[in-house]
């Protein structure tokens, strides 16, 4: 019996994810953050988590109503028709083979990385407006990337269940690598028991673990502000490179995690 090459790739990726362990610095960082979170007022902390959850839901809704995303849906359907002319909706894309859906989604992943690199380079110039909007733009761009990959596999993310699963994929994909294996297992367990239309699981997305991402963003902003002083012919090349590489790596991690998740769903 022939072995599915993509199935082998997923298994290899899962093994690496499971084998990844925190180093001494990461363990120290986690301990310090845990102590800091304990000192925070619990009510205010939960209020902040609910606020960020609401912002993620609103971002999802905004993207679904945007002209850019509508054009992307039409583009994905047109790509699907190359393989199956009868495709007319996103859900029809589920009739494609896993290899065909993977090919379409990988094209979106590649474009998403380039967009992230360009946006990060712009933020790396150190301008107040560009730097201040860097994190919100990263959230929107990477959330959109997850949505595009999901649609490439025929998942209609306007359905409540698929919407929540795509948000949870985004949340898990933006966690530090050392925390992703547990999130991956939880995500697969929830996927197997998910209802067809109405979502019935836990709709909370943000918790203490996700705080690593805004903290890393703050560190990146400090690095860019420091690098802004080092210019070559009036251009802060170091700051631009820092922003571009940082955002590129995040988009790459989010895209790969999302691709593996939707490929895994085909196998399930």
Written description of the protein model:
The protein has 268 residues and is mainly alpha-helical. The protein has one domain (33-267). 75% of the residues lie in helices and 0% in strands. Helix 3 packs across helix 7 (134-152), helix 5 runs antiparallel to helix 11 and helix 7 packs parallel to helix 11 (237-267). The two termini are 18 Å apart.
**What separation lies between the terminal Cα atoms?**
18 Å
Number of strands: 0
Mean pLDDT, as a whole number?
85
* Class based on secondary structure composition and strand pairing: mainly alpha
Radius of gyration: 19 Å
Tell the overall outline: globular
User: How many H/I helical runs?
Assistant: 11
Specify the helix fraction band: over 70%
Counting structural domains, the number is: 1
**What profile does the largest beta sheet have?**
none
Succession of helices and strands? HHHHHHHHHHH
Fraction in beta strands = under 5%
Low-confidence stretches: none
Name the descriptors.
268 residues; mainly alpha; 11 helices; 75% helix; globular
Offer a quick outline of the entry.
InterPro entries: EcsC. The chain has helices spanning 5-19, 24-39, 42-65, 67-83, 98-123, 128-132, 134-152, 160-173, 177-193, 212-227, 237-267.
Question: What's the topology here?
Answer:
Layout: H1 5-19, H2 24-39, H3 42-65, H4 67-83, H5 98-123, H6 128-132, H7 134-152, H8 160-173, H9 177-193, H10 212-227, H11 237-267
